[in-house]
Structure formats: C-alpha cells, structure tokens
C-alpha cells in the first residue's frame, strides 16, 4: 500500500505497480520458462501474504491465481479483497458464515465452505492448495472441463487433483495436506511458509 485518497470521492487506495499483472495469465504466457525454485518462491510470497491476513483475522474467500499480482521481480502479492471478511475475535471458532445466495468460486473453495458457507483461514488454506496446483501447472484450469457440480461431487468422494507434470512430490504432498477434508487438520499458513522455506533451502527435495 503506497497511499489512500479519502478526501474526495471515490475513495481509492494506491498500490505498487505490478508489471506482470495477474499470475494465472502470466504463467500461461510463460509456460515452462521458470525453474522449480522460482515457482516455489512465488508460492512462498503468496503464503506469506496469507499468513499476514490470517494473523489479522481476515479470511480472503477468493484466493486464486487470477487474484495474485506479479511484479517485474516475480514477487507475488495477494489482491482482490472483494469477498474478504473480518473474522469475529472468538478463538474457539474463528468462522465467517456468509448469507445464502452469493456466488462463490467453486473450484477454489473448501467443501465445508461450499456446503455450509463456513469460511475460515482453513478454507483459505484449501484455496491456497489449488493456487499451488495452478502455479505448478502454469495456469491450467483446476479440474479442467468438469462442471462445478461435478467438481463438488468429485471432491465429496475424495477426489483430489493429481500432480502437475514435473511437480516435485513434496509440493504435491503439501497440496494434499491443504485439501484434507477435516479443516482442523490442514496446515496453518505459518506452517506452509516454514515448509516452503525448508524446501527452498534444500533444493534436492524438489526433484
């Protein structure tokens, strides 16, 4: 955030210019052009941003590669907070329940959020796993040409996206951890950042 305009309408925020625009289209334009370490660096930046959001008690609800911006140094920043909400400060159950009727991005949304409109940092973690898959597949559409209802049914029957081509086993395992049905068993964003840091330090684990 570089600044804000509050003394005139419309109210605006001024942010850093992100030369490479949205991550999904950027990856598709540069298919196969990055090293695994570069891709993991992008994922680490996204996870760090989500760690901060979760620590501030915000749930994003629309985390997807299309809502990540990329600058000239391949630094990724989380954007598009149109669906984000503040979680009530109740440590026993930090949950946002949305009213029925609003559209939600099915392919990126955790099953409990689809079924019960229960959004938490853990549902953002599920979405982050989908973003990981998007990054490692260079912007492929999650679940390809399946309909939204087919995606819901498949996930309910424990189908999970397979590893993208040349995706290191350790990264696909982290995706699967993000997609655990029980939201309480999914890693926290702080744990995801730590895991990615370890993988970056030990490049041999990314084969």
C-alpha termini separation: 37 Å
Report the principal-axis shape.
Answer: globular
In spatial order, strands of the major sheet run 1-2
Helix content: 25-40%
Give the radius of gyration.
Answer: 17 Å
What is the oligomeric state here?
A: single chain
Can you tell me about this structure?
The protein is mainly alpha-helical and 207 residues long. Helices cover 39% and strands 10% of the residues. The chain has one domain (22-88, 101-205): Transferase(Phosphotransferase) domain 1 (Transferase(Phosphotransferase), domain 1, Orthogonal Bundle). The strands form four sheets. A two-stranded antiparallel ribbon has the order 1-2. Strands 3-6 form a two-stranded antiparallel sheet. A two-stranded antiparallel sheet has the order 4-5. The mean pLDDT is 91. The protein is built from seven helices and eight strands. Keywords: ATP-binding, Cell membrane, Developmental protein, Kinase, Membrane, Neurogenesis, Nucleotide-binding, Phosphoprotein, Receptor, Transferase. Heterotetramer upon binding of the ligand. The heterotetramer is composed of an ephrin dimer and a receptor dimer. Oligomerization is probably required to induce biological responses. This is Ephrin type-B receptor 3. GO terms for molecular function: ATP binding; protein tyrosine kinase activity.
């Amino acid at each position: 955030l570089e600044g804000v305009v509050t003394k005139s309408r419309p109210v605006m925020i001024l942010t850093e210019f992100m030369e490479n625009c949205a991550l999904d289209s950027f990856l598709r334009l540069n298919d196969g052009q990055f090293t695994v370490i570069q891709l993991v660096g992008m994922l680490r930046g996204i996870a760090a941003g989500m760690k901060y959001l979760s620590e501030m008690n915000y749930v994003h609800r629309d985390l997807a590669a299309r809502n990540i911006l990329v600058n000239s140094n391949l630094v990724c920043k989380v954007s598009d907070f149109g669906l984000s909400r503040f979680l009530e400060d109740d440590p026993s159950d930090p949950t946002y329940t949305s009213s029925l009727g609003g559209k939600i991005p099915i392919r990126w949304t955790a099953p409990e959020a689809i079924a019960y409109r229960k959004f938490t940092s853990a549902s953002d973690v599920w979405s982050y796993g989908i973003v990981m898959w998007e990054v490692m597949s260079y912007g492929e559409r999650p679940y390809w040409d399946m309909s939204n209802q087919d995606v819901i049914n498949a996930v309910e029957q424990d189908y999970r996206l397979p590893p993208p081509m040349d995706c290191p086993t350790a990264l696909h395992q982290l995706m699967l951890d993000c997609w655990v049905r029980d939201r309480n068993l999914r890693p926290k964003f702080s744990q995801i950042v730590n895991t990615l840091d370890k993988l970056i330090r030990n490049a041999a684990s990314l084969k």
